[in-house]
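Blackboard transcription, Thursday session:
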Amino acid sequence: MAITIKDVAKAAKVSPSTVSRVISDSNHISEKTKKKVREVMEELGYHINLNARGLVQQSTKTLGIVLKYSENVAWKWVNPFVSEVLQGIGSHCHEHGYSIMITTGNTEEEIYADTVKMVQGKQVDGIIVLYAKEGDRVVPFLLEAEIPFAVIGKPVDRINEVMYVDNDNVQAAKDATEFLLSKHHQKIGFIGDNPTFQVIQDRVDGYFKALEWKGFPRDEGYVKFIRDPEDEGAVLDEFLKMKNPPTALIISSPLQGVGILKSMQENHLHVPEDMSLIVFNKTLITDLSIPKLTAVDTQTYQLGYEASRGVVELINNPDTFKRSVIIPTKIELGESHRSLKSAKPEFVKK
Amino acid sequence: MAITIKDVAKAAKVSPSTVSRVISDSNHISEKTKKKVREVMEELGYHINLNARGLVQQSTKTLGIVLKYSENVAWKWVNPFVSEVLQGIGSHCHEHGYSIMITTGNTEEEIYADTVKMVQGKQVDGIIVLYAKEGDRVVPFLLEAEIPFAVIGKPVDRINEVMYVDNDNVQAAKDATEFLLSKHHQKIGFIGDNPTFQVIQDRVDGYFKALEWKGFPRDEGYVKFIRDPEDEGAVLDEFLKMKNPPTALIISSPLQGVGILKSMQENHLHVPEDMSLIVFNKTLITDLSIPKLTAVDTQTYQLGYEASRGVVELINNPDTFKRSVIIPTKIELGESHRSLKSAKPEFVKK
DNA sequence: TTGTAGGCGTTATCAG
DNA sequence: CTGATAACGCCTACAA
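(Written on the board underneath:)
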């Protein structure tokens, strides 16, 4: 049994409450006794029991993180995302004395159960959900439980009741498209995965917006979706067989980016000479690709940091307006794109 | 204020202790009252307060994870490692009803402070340290605190006092070398980073062991270390300029593997036609490389799982022998190696 | 099988 | 400025 506040009190010949006051550095207490008590604490090797404090204060100063349910292939690219987001959350939490508890489950059901346990068990003061998924039970539960929380991503249901942190995907795709247009590309293809995800919809929107702004007619033929992983080859073929094949592609996932790169190579085509690529989500995959992929940086660290900030604010003042935050994206230049129609093919500096 | 055990007791017309017994599913209690109490709990929406339970039981059923201090470049490749290890730990923890708390700090000092807080604050029952570093203060602290813990990696100090989970790097390098030998390679190079790390030393050992077993003389000229990142080009050059350049390379980090791949390409050389590569640590980087790199899989998930198992065992029975676990590695075949068919160069005679 | 009472280590309220 | 005293929500002898 460890040293308690009472032991210290006894040794310092004061009452437990005085020791408690010293711990919280109350200013209703004389410097003299403060010093004395501190000395005794040092001497006895006293350390506060956060559990006990949590019980009486009804607060654990801990944030719960709901990880994304990871299935087979998909989780791979999520990997770096998780670490970076965690870093961002961690930074903020550390600054504000919060601890972090994460879900342990592997399946959707398990993760839900973990969340319920953390919340109902009063293990955490707030929650950050690392994904947004239609029909997911976690967000409704959190609303029901009335616990402060934030979602990273754009919630589909009851969006105006939840605080979220996300990128502006419409704008990001618009930026990417305009970037390619500025390099004199005119035929630009778009590749996405599951079009039922809001992210993808938004990106397609942004893509068309940029094109239409420049006066290009909307042509759905340049937008393709890859359902099955490793199916990039087929889609690339479709593009190449068009009467006016694109000279550049916007690809909405780093994994698919690498897939296209591979398929290009198999067709004895070169990037960026034969095709410019710009990929969504700068990750270590895109950085280490050969050539390094030009990518849209979604600033994952910032996403985490802001989410944490939001939740902590909500904890400190539950009536805070649930303002949601949009983290700007930026284009990270790689070597997978080139400029068309310049006197000489001009490569962008690194 | 939420529903407590007392509320349930009152509503069910039993005493709080009875309710408590129902919670712990004690068998000293009639099925009838059990059912009744459970109904009331359901009706009232009762949920246990784990904080309170933790206080009285002196145990939180939570494991603390000490993350690796991540500096500039190095952390990138650590990234996937963290997520995978966490998955492994999570799986085991979930099975045994443990929660997970992770450090939030970014610097070595902060992480140390986080660890102290978790342990002294009685927030966790055990600790898993995700790295082994010479001179680090965390392990000595944990020993001092007498809390159950395990280290992933091979601790340098006081190794026989701590439980650790690691791969057998000597064996792994031996396997990799033998693999290449079986493909008829005779000149095999080895590339490592900082040779002061034990891992690297072990791998060099294994490399030489395999060669010497086959009767090849020890030739330090085929072992090179890359200090500065992005310096792979120079080292590759050195190899290529040898009188008997290697036909295969064993590379001790995935990052360096990609670097070599890039340098090969810049020299208009092909993998595996001109050089076979086998890389340490299968990660998503090696999987997504073009060509996919043949890699030594260190089974990160298993490392995490076993570490968790060890700590939980230690918690349940503190007198358990601190057996350490060696997780076997295995070679994941990629497309970066080939078999040298011709029995061209004979054994080297010296 | 069930109830009573005391305590886990802190903080908070109220006196003094 | 400091000290009793009562919670916080649960568990666990010890009784009944």
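Lecturer's comment: Confidence is low (pLDDT under 50) at residues 72-78, 343-350 of chain B.
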